[in-house]
């Protein structure tokens, strides 16, 4: 026996079917349903609309042999509504993709701003803790340097080579006055300017400025390009969200969406094949984005994967202060030689008593700073990029399958259901269904596609350009070269797979480990950057430790470190 709940459900279904049948039969005799939907959907006045079906000789698109509930003015309003509906469906389909890119672009920029502030903090604390006498004088140069870093990262027309050299130029007079020739020295602007100008000729910091410039270039430029590419991605979506449909497309959309209303078929949906022909025709130019969009996402992924080690802006910025410390120590160790060179170029200073201002840095910041914090792996910029790329990868074929997605998810009737064919309700659509893209539209029975879309062509050109930038910024580890600095030292050649496990991350002591691939080089580990006179002694000492004589005629790679624990390696 049928239970009460089943009986109630059955009654409701029968009642619903009866109402649907009544509505359809009423629609054939009256235009009341059409009038109500027209007023609700288009917020248009019902005055002048037909009360019952009649001939429509003035209709341009929704032409039918049967009587119609539409007028020419209704048809015009329906055409506007069809375009608006299509734009709304486009925007809905791309909303998740647009949110993904825009949210991450904002998050990456915010993270970079935080990293810049933290790196500036580390550098300021270095001077306050270690070089207290020059800290206050160095503050402006530190601030200017990191301001330039931010400007460059976020797209401003500033030159990394210029702001790196400007920083070390301004640092040299401070190091000279406080470490190399300390005490009661002349602090005149003229003499300090002479020292500043002489920095590049004297090379007091060895190859450290070149190493900084190399690391800044390798890390800042890819990050800058990555951000620019994300902003272009948002521009692409905004462009396709606000397409200007052709006249042919607008007429086809009207025929598909609202011409059924004229026959009282207010709840009908287009057949799948019919919908695909119309939407593929309207979006033929948009489909041309597909190969470029696919390559765009692939290029973003390749660049993101390559941004590690000295290509990782987080690693470079948070370890910048260690290179500054190495530079100051190098100048201090080579002090006597530098002193003589300065005397030759700038003369001897006029000696008079001076009082150096002391550091006034907020001591509470020290708690955040000198020791590189152990950041949670999930919080790193690299992991955020990886998570973003994993999500973005799902949208590689977005534009290639956009028309199909709209018809399947939003517009068309389900398989096996009666549907609108453009002329009447049918069991299935019998016309040929064309593919995606402009070339496939030559045989489209529903939409004629002519010419090209200049707006889409322009955005394709922008995509091609940013793809070139992305691919040009992707490092090729096998082609990395050793760079000889002005101090005669050798810049690092990092392993292509360098990461924290390989020793390229910050250690708990603030030490920056670097893994070098050595072939025809002997290796000596040094505290600071020794003078030439000290190098031979260290080489001989190291020869005793390793048990064989190091050939001093060969190139010798020095790994410089400020880690006190490494003294035992050399001193054993």
Automatic annotation (TrEMBL):
Signal peptide: 1-25
GO cellular component annotations of the record: cell surface; extracellular region; plasma membrane; side of membrane
Subcellular location: Cell membrane
Source domain of life: Eukaryota
GO biological process, one term: positive regulation of canonical Wnt signaling pathway
Keyword Protein transport: no
Primary location recorded for the protein, binned into one broad class: membrane
Pfam families: Glypican
Keywords, ordered alphabetically: Cell membrane, Glycoprotein, GPI-anchor, Heparan sulfate, Lipoprotein, Membrane, Proteoglycan, Signal
Similarity annotation: Belongs to the glypican family.
Physiological role: Cell surface proteoglycan.
Name of this chain's protein: Glypican-5 isoform X3
